[in-house]
Amino acid sequence: MIYRRTYLSDKRKYQRYGCNMTVWCKVQEPQDVRTQFADREIEATALNVSEAGVGLLSDQQIPKHSMISLTLVMFKGNSEGEVRGQKPLQFQGTVCYSQPAMDEENKFRLGVSFTSVPQDYREQLSNFLTAPA
Fold it and tell me: How far apart are CA 7 and CA 15, in angstroms?
């Protein structure tokens, strides 16, 4: 679900939107980190998203500078209880920060910058973030 709350102090190129979406992550590189996670997908929650990256909350701490693949499952609900979804989008990204969550025990905050976003995905994500439910 996408929330219309934006980050007023954010001076980034792309607007970030608060959200609560399921994301699956899989470490691609470096090889030792990939091996550490036994090549499995890790479920996380997207707390904010933009056309350039995503902020995650995870049970697992993925080290900074790790290359990961992400699958975002996106849907919106409106006040009438209708839900609109779309096909999951897959991205490649780099973990820019990885630290313990201040407000949740045994959780980690991850900041991921998208490194590979096909143009049609970028448009779909932009339309999804800005269109009404």
Answer: 8
The CATH number that applies at residue 112 is 2.40.10.220
* CA neighbor of 76 nearest in space, from 49, 39, 44: 49
pTM: 0.78
Domain ranges, residue 32 = 2-130
pLDDT tens column, 5-25: 444 455 567 778 888 888 999
User: 72 pairs with which residues across the strands?
Assistant: 23, 89
Q: Output the DSSP codes for 48-71.
A: EE-SSEEEEEESS-PPTT-EEEEE
In the chain, the number of structural domains is 1
Q: pLDDT digit string (tens) for 89-99?
A: 888 999 999 99
Distances (CA, A) of 17 to 93, 125, 129: 18, 11, 7
